[in-house]
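[job 4471] stage=fold_predict status=RUNNING
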Amino acid sequence: MPQPHSERRVGIALVIAAAVAWSTAPFFTRLLPFDPWTILFWRGLFGGGLIMVFLAITQGRGGLHDLVTMGTSGWLVTALSTLAMVTFIPALQMTDVTNVAVIIASQPFVAAALAFIWFREAARWQTLLASLVAFGGVAIIVGSAHAAADVKGIGLACVMVLAISAMTAAIRRYRQTSMVAAAALSNFLGSLVSLPFAHDIARVTAPDISILAMFGFFQVALGLTLFALGSRLLPSGQTSLIATLETPLMPFWVWLAFSEVPSWRALIGGALVMGAVVADIVSGDRIHANA
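[job 4471] inference complete, writing structure tokens
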């Protein structure tokens, strides 16, 4: 049965809002002079706490009950979300923001491929062709790595993309299951995993706590909750495609606040990836208009 137009519009709006929230991660990361594990610990506590408050307000006891009754599908999303969290911040600190942003831009094609392999969610040939161009752009970014830190950062960014793509497909596959509770639990689990490695916890001051709170509340809790809600309403590939709006915004915030200029290789690779995304959107619009 065709998807209702109003449902599709709601899904698009939710994922766009999630992309805007997610794009602020590099900005907050640059403001915090701590090891990535300390940032992950505090960010997870604040992010998970806000999602719990959201569940309590919107669903009452039923929302909190989802934490213990979400089943295997919920735990799968929790594990994938946690993996994405604990690789994202270290990646931002080990390589240029633009490198991470461009690799993230390949996510729509990875998500579409996983959804097709898993539950045969169809992908258009135009999307597959665009994915080849996008991966060409990623190859250029990887080719610009010039230090061990770059290689590690790019590797962590690739792991994060795989985890987010699999999470997107899982949310779509089990769309009848509430995944907001899984989002909350993944934040707390990320904090637990980070705690043994968080060496700067004692150095965190009151002003730092306020920045960490905004990081957790806005970038994590709001972004992840909106994405979990919107992903249920759109195909996996389209969800990830819209989410790549964070790609140009991530280096933009850092350039605006810290004057961090991206490398020429990152710009060329980014142009290829974003060009592929735009071409896929335009071709999809034409097919829809002629249908």
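[job 4471] summary: The CA atoms of residues 136 and 272 lie 7 Å apart.
[job 4471] exit 0
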